[in-house]
From TrEMBL:
It comes from the Eukaryota. It is a multi-pass membrane protein. Its EC number is 2.4.1.16. It comes from Scleropages formosus (Asian bonytongue). It is an enzyme of class 2 (transferase). One of its GO terms (biological process) is chitin biosynthetic process. Belongs to the chitin synthase family. Class IV subfamily. GO terms for cellular component: plasma membrane. The lineage of its organism: Eukaryota, Metazoa, Chordata, Craniata, Vertebrata. It is found in: Cell membrane. InterPro entries: Chitin_synth, Nucleotide-diphossugar_trans. This is chitin synthase. It catalyses: [(1->4)-N-acetyl-beta-D-glucosaminyl](n) + UDP-N-acetyl-alpha-D-glucosamine = [(1->4)-N-acetyl-beta-D-glucosaminyl](n+1) + UDP + H(+). Keywords: Cell membrane, Coiled coil, Glycoprotein, Glycosyltransferase, Membrane, Transferase, Transmembrane, Transmembrane helix. SUPFAM superfamilies: Nucleotide-diphospho-sugar transferases (SSF53448). The gene is chs1.
Length: 1389
């Protein structure tokens, strides 16, 4: 309770103690519901693995028993069950062939090495031969229990290879494969002994010929065990050249070997049973198989096939959710005991049901029961299966007339085989898996063996799991660095609060950058503020504007919330592009504000992205490969950036750059953000997982949630939900996401640095189409460049981010006016290069291109489709004729299009808003009319009814599968009634205004207004006849005129050169002087010329410089010449040195410095004594809001150091004195003003010169671009208009023709009875309806697939996420596998 008391006392030291506490700044905790759900999923998956494995193995054993010559079935029926066994062996190979064929045809194809392929085909052929001999020939001759046990011997080759290559790190572990080998050989010996006893005691009519089958069974088991040869060899790094070469064309090899295996299975079956086995196969029998046999055999086949595939898939899921032991190892390892228990239980149940043998059951003698099995007839399917199981068990020594002790030999055989398998696969229990793994990183082979499903899963698990992009198979992840880059453009205070709170949350999650993190990443935060400066009206000084001032206040406020103190380490740096503020976040990670001056560098989002990509990937990447020497800081003020460990925080940035030396571009990521994005650390880590798992993923985006209030936001909530639920998931599953939104997307550094990506992204728009594609939707264009270069873009539905959505109708329409044409332009560009892109990009196939063509066609015909839907609404509501309804429905869109061509933008939007409201009323009436019509018709089985009901069910099920977003379904009605506005009016507005390439949102005229009023002395205008006369005189004009007069009157007096004044005029954007129609202004060409001649080395753009003395300590000797904007910014951060703030900062700094020293009592004593010392020194000398002077700071520092020394000496803790003094020093040091290094300054000057110099287009060019944009607009409108008119006209004439070509569909009532009436549907409408339904169905199936893998990813993340545990003292402990002992108490936050 000490923390609230001290906090209250600190707050009482000032009259303004109140602060904001943004949502999400509280400490993260694991939600109990997620923990329960995680364990529940693990248990369910484990049960599914066990049940599917038992069913797979059990159904196979039943088929073997029923196909046995000694079964209770007729000979012909035995042949049919044997054929089902063949199908069971073939099924996995068919699936593997189809998957490999798909990848070779639509993904990538690499020509194989014939030698390697020949070796693989030989091995696969031997494996297939062994499988065929064992399952088709040997196992039908054996009993169920022997067949269950003999499959454990397929681990023998794996054990031999483990012994040969000594794969175990600890030498003693070699005992496992040795024991496995011994146990398996012992099992084989017991198998032969068991059959010798059976033959000699005449059990089950066994004969000596069974020894042949025993030998063939042992040989075939050895051949089958070759199936997993690759696993030990990969782990031993042997023949790595061949194995790495095999990875390149594995798909093609699997396709060929699948065909080979199927062929060998067929050949073995045909040769043996057609020519060797007696009696031979009667092929004619298969055309008239008895119904019961047919149904039973097919049922067993499908059960075995589906459960085998299901067991394999659930096993993969169990590993991916980090439940290897509970959900994978235990169920798979105990499959054989489980099947044994089930078989014995069924046998005992059958035996117990026979009253004649109850006594024999009690004495464990089953001879009478076994002899009675053959006399039971007229069994159903279940009884037949139970009888076959019992009959097969009766073939063991359990049915001996003599002694039953030989049964122990069979049990010992099974125990040896089972233990041998467990010993050979002991590594499964210790396997370490990173958060998200590819199946190829978990298992060596993609193909599972349906006949040996449990052995296949265990032996196929990699002995050493290859880490992400780590060919050395190390246990740890490769380090990565993440640059968070947010672009700001006129954000509000609350929006800035969101993004900074998110960054500070990530800082708290990451912790000290010097410590290792379990996710193994480092990060920096960069915020790029466009339009950060303005010219002061009176003094013409260039100062930071209100947006930067708000940002500074926000970062101070957020710092207080997270640490209860002011920012400690602040640096203010002048740059060629404006300025930079550098902060050290509470845990030691870095935060940068880049303040852009649009007079020095291009503004807007795309150029900010180019700016940070070149800076972070180009410049910092260059520094990483060519590290500069860190010069010793002679400035004593750098002591302000001393960390608790005595290292310079200036070195933190250098330290990050030095870490970058060991991090490749593949592991360098840029997280693109908007200035109002709100996210949690988990969202970032989930995106990082996607890029770590797949090397070809160039970008990944998350689920974007629009925030705000009002009808427009409600509409967008459901629109975003549907877009992510169905459209983005379909793109992810079938190909690649086309757009990774710039508000929250993670990009791979090597992808951005690839050819034709970043370099082309710097292209300046010069043509109309480029303005639309490049500048109106820069994030979509960047993704198009990545896709065309061969990179994949993915979507992670569990990575949630929140961003503000337009709340006003006008803002929404202007936003979509930018997005619509850009989306269409980039999609058409991708489709135009579809063939080349499909060849280069393995994620994009021609089928996916066809899918995109269909979706684009649907969107182009959207206005006509909506018009026809409105016509249907007129029919329902007003009972109009179909033709008249169509005519009436197209009148408003045509009128609105004419208005858009002739009227101003604001009027267009006003008309659109009015029409949207009217359409909303019509859609509401139509909705209830359709429901009423279904009630009147007493059926919903009509085209309209089926469509409405099916869409409602589809969206409802989709929402249920997104439980955290289920509330979005409420906004579905709002979305439905706004369809005409969103798909008809908005499309018209977007197309007609395509020539308008302004941003449209967050626009402000503040700076322009200031510029117009600067220095104006006289502004007069008048109209005389046809002449417009204007006289405008500014301060600079007056100076020029006075200078000319002085030169004329007194030419000997030396004054300021006219050229210098003109340069000054151009730099201050002086208004022209217009007198009687004569323009004394500079032409655009001269302005451009002067802009090109600007001396960027002296980037003060005409300002006077002032000397600024760094505040505090010994820094009085060092002076910097800085711009006017620096001092006001510095003044804000100097408030940390006020009396009230200083006390709070000192207390928190001391607590933080001693947080890991287990000296809580000493810490609180120090805090109390130092606080008393501050009160004694300052209480009656300064006010709570006064900033301390240098002399006061020096005296206070000396007094505090002495007090701390006395307290520590009294407690015999002198070893902590240096640490406490550093905390005191950090508290008393002021923010610093610095300059860039000459190297970085040169980089920025060259970057601006090449790519980012302000765009100054002349008037002629602007007019030319405007003409091109209008021409492009006209072509696009004409294209859209013609296609939509053709669609409407076709529908209209089909309505006119009527019954002639209409399709008559029978009408059914919900109870299934047929009505006498029929429903008439036009072919065109039916075709469109079916196409739309098929598209939605395909997207729905893709969503189901994506949901499953999202669940796997979420559960795996929850299993490995950072844990916060509250200790006994109500503190907060950070659980880290590597950095144990780092304790954060509640006082620290």
């Amino acid at each position: 309770d000490a923390f609230p008391t001290i906090l209250t006392s600190v707050r009482r030291d000032t009259w303004d103690p109140f602060q904001l506490n943004p949502i999400g700044a509280e400490k993260e905790k694991k939600k109990r519901c997620f923990i329960l759900a995680q364990h529940l999923v693990a248990v369910i998956v484990g049960l599914l693995v066990l049940v599917s494995a038992v069913l797979s193995k059990g159904s196979l054993l039943v088929l073997c028993a029923m196909a046995s010559p000694k079964s209770l079935e007729k000979n012909h029926d035995q042949q049919f069950y044997l054929l089902m066994l063949v199908f069971c062996l073939v099924m996995p190979n068919v699936l593997m062939f189809l998957k490999s064929l798909w990848k070779c045809a639509f993904k990538n194809f690499v020509s194989p090495n014939m030698k390697t392929m020949g070796i693989i085909c030989l091995i696969e052929g031997l494996v297939s031969l062994g499988t065929s001999l064992l399952v088709l020939i040997v196992m039908p001759q054996f009993d169920v229990l022997t067949n269950l046990f003999i499959t454990g011997g397929v681990c023998i080759v794996s054990s031999v290879l483990q012994i040969a290559f000594r794969l175990q790190k600890e030498n003693w572990k070699i005992i496992f494969p040795i024991c496995s080998l011994i146990l398996v050989l012992t099992g084989y010996g017991l198998l032969a002994s068991d059959y010798y006893v059976r033959a000699s005691s005449y059990v089950g009519k066994e004969t000596n010929e069974n020894f042949v089958y025993v030998g063939v069974g042992i040989l075939s088991s050895l051949l089958v065990s070759l199936n997993w040869w690759e696993n030990p060899l990969k782990a031993s790094n042997s023949i790595q050249d061949m194995l790495s070469e095999l990875e390149g064309f594995r798909d093609f090899v699997f396709m060929i070997t699948s065909i080979l295996r199927i062929a060998i299975i067929g050949v073995v079956y045909a040769i043996y049973f057609a020519f060797i086995q007696q009696p031979h196969i009667d092929w004619s029998y298969f055309s008239h198989v008895p119904t019961q046999t047919l149904h039973l055999g097919i049922s067993l086949f499908f059960l075995q096939a589906f459960t085998s595939a299901g067991c394999h898939w659930f096993g993969v899921v169990a590993c991916k959710i980090h439940a290897v032991r509970v959900s994978f190892a235990i169920p798979v390892c105990f499959t054989v005991p489980a099947v044994l228990i089930v078989a014995v239980a069924l046998f005992l149940t059958q035996a117990g049901n026979s009253s004649r043998v109850l006594e024999e059951v009690a004495t464990a003698n089953f001879t009478s029961f076994c002899s009675s099995l053959g006399s039971i007839n007229n069994r159903n399917g279940t009884e037949l299966i139970l009888a076959e199981i019992s009959n097969s068990i009766c073939r063991t020594t359990l049915n001996s007339y003599y002694e039953s002790w030989p049964l122990a030999m069979l049990a010992t055989e099974g125990l040896c085989m089972w233990l041998g398998l467990l010993a050979a696969t002991h590594y499964v229990w210790k396997i370490k898996i990173q958060r998200i793994e590819r199946t190829s990183q978990l298992f060596v082979r993609r193909l599972y063996e349906s006949a040996f499903i449990d052995q296949s899963l265990l032996l196929n698990t990699k002995i050493k799991v290859v880490r992400a992009r780590n060919q050395d198979s190390k246990d740890e992840l490769e380090s990565c660095v993440i640059y968070l880059c947010a672009t700001m453009w006129h954000e509000t205070y609350d929006e800035m609060l969101k993004i900074l709170t998110s960054m500070f949350r990530l800082d708290r999650y990451r912790g000290d950058p010097k410590e290792q993190h379990k996710d193994d990443f480092d990060f920096e935060c960069h915020i790029f503020v466009d339009d950060a400066f303005q010219t002061e009206k009176d003094t013409e000084k260039r100062l930071t504007n209100e947006y930067v001032n708000n940002l500074i206040q926000v970062v101070i406020e957020v710092y207080r919330v997270f640490t209860n103190k002011e920012p400690d380490d602040v640096s203010i740096i002048e740059t060629p592009y404006g300025g930079r503020l550098m902060f050290t976040m509470p845990e030691g990670n870095m935060l940068f504000f880049h303040l852009k001056d649009k007079q020095l560098i291009r503004n807007k989002k795309r150029w900010s992205q180019i700016m940070y990509m070149y800076y972070l990937l180009g410049w910092k990447g260059y520094l990483a490969k060519n590290p500069p020497k860190i010069t010793r800081q002679n400035n004593p003020c750098r002591s302000s950036l001393i960390s608790l460990d005595g290292e310079s925080f200036g070195v933190v940035t250098h330290d990050n750059d030095s870490k970058r030396r060991f991090i490749s571009e593949d592991n360098t990521y840029i997280l693109a953000l908007d200035g109002d994005t709100d996210f949690h650390p988990s969202a970032v880590i989930l995106l990082v997982d996607r890029l770590r798992m797949y090397n070809n993923v160039g970008a990944a985006c998350g689920r974007i949630h629009p925030t705000g209030m009002g009808p427009m936001v409600w509409y967008q909530k459901f629109e975003y939900a549907v877009g992510h639920w169905l459209q983005k998931t379909a793109e992810h599953v079938f190909g690649s996401v086309l757009c990774s939104p710039g508000c929250f997307s993670l990009f791979r550094g090597s992808a951005l640095m690839d050819d034709n990506v970043l370099k082309r992204y710097t292209t300046k728009s010069t043509r109309a189409a480029e303005y639309v594609q490049y500048d109106q939707g820069e994030d979509r264009w960047l993704c198009t460049l990545l896709l065309q270069q061969g990179w994949r873009v993915e979507y992670n539905a569990a990575s949630d981010a929140y961003t503000n959505a337009p709340q006003e109708f006008k803002e929404f329409y202007n936003q979509r006016r930018r997005w619509g044409p850009s989306t269409l332009a980039n999609t058409l560009d991708l489709l135009h290069s579809g063939k080349e892109t499909a060849q280069r990009n393995s994620s994009i196939s021609m089928l996916y291109i066809a899918y995109q063509i269909f979706t684009v066609g649907s969107s182009i015909l959207g206005p006509a489709s909506v018009s026809l839907m409105i016509a249907g609404a007129f029919q329902f509501v007003f009972q109009m004729e179909g033709t008249l309804a169509i005519i009436v429905s197209i009148i408003p869109p045509v009128i609105y299009m004419l208005i858009c061509f002739t009227c101003k933008t604001n009027f267009q939007i006003s008309i659109a808003a009015i029409l949207s409201v009217l359409y909303a009323f019509l859609m509401t009436a139509s909705f209830f009319s359709i429901i009423g019509d279904m009630v009147i018709q007493q059926t919903f089985i009509t085209p309209t009814g089926i469509f409405l009901v099916s869409m409602s069910i589809l969206y409802l099920v989709t929402a249920i599968l997104h439980p955290q977003e289920f509330g979005m379904i409420v906004y579905g009605l709002m979305y439905f009634i706004c369809i005409p506005s969103g798909y008809l009016l908005l499309t018209i507005y977007t197309l007609v205004n395509m020539h308008n390439v302004s941003w449209g949102t967050r626009e402000t005229n503040h700076d322009k207004a200031v510029t117009k009023r600067v220095g104006v002395l006289c502004d007069r205008s008048c109209k005389l006849c046809c002449w417009d006369m204007k006289c405008q005189v500014t301060q600079e004009t007056e100076n020029i005129v006075l200078q000319q007069i002085k030169n004329v009157v007194n030419p000997n007096v030396k004054g300021v050169p006219l050229k210098a004044l003109e340069n000054q005029e151009s730099r201050h954007n002086i208004s022209e002087v217009n007198i009687l129609g004569t323009f004394f202004s500079e032409s655009d060409d001269s302005v451009n010329k002067k802009a090109d001649q600007r001396d960027y080395d002296d980037y003060n753009y005409g300002e006077k410089e002032e000397e600024v003395v760094p505040y505090g300590g010994e820094c009085n000797s060092t002076k910097y010449k800085v711009h006017y904007w620096v001092n006001p910014v510095k003044t804000e951060f100097l408030k940390k040195l006020t009396y009230a703030n200083l006390k709070r900062n000192l207390q928190e700094q001391v607590r933080y410095s001693l947080r890991n020293k287990d000296q809580d009592d000493l810490c609180e004593e120090l805090v109390q004594m130092l606080t008393d010392e501050v009160n004694g020194e300052l209480k009656d000398k300064v006010g709570p809001e006064d900033v301390l002077l240098d002399s006061q700071l020096e005296e206070l520092q000396y007094a505090l150091n002495e007090t701390a020394r006395r307290v520590l000496k009294t407690n015999r803790m002198e070893r902590l004195e240096k640490r406490v003094k550093r905390a005191i020093e950090k508290t008393l040091i002021a923010p610093q003003v610095e300059k860039l290094t000459e190297e970085e300054k040169d980089f920025w000057l060259k970057l601006i010169e090449r790519y980012l110099s302000p765009i100054l287009d002349d008037k002629a060019h602007k007019e030319e671009v405007t003409r091109e944009l209008k021409s492009l607009r006209n072509k696009a409108v004409f294209f859209y208009f013609i296609l939509n008119v053709l669609w409407v006209v076709a529908t209209f004439f089909l309505q006119v023709i009527g019954d002639t070509i209409s399709i008559h569909i029978p009408k059914y009532f919900p109870n299934g009875t047929k009505s006498d009436d029929t429903m008439k549907v036009e072919p065109l409408s039916l075709m469109f309806l079916l196409s739309f339904a098929v598209l939605l169905l395909v997207q729905f199936l893709a969503m189901l697939y994506h949901r499953i893998y999202t669940l796997i990813h979420v559960v795996s993340y929850r299993s490995t996420e950072k844990e916060y545990k509250v200790n006994d003292d109500d503190g907060l402990m950070y659980e880290n596998q590597i950095a144990n002992g780092l304790v954060i108490t509640s006082d620290d936050l």
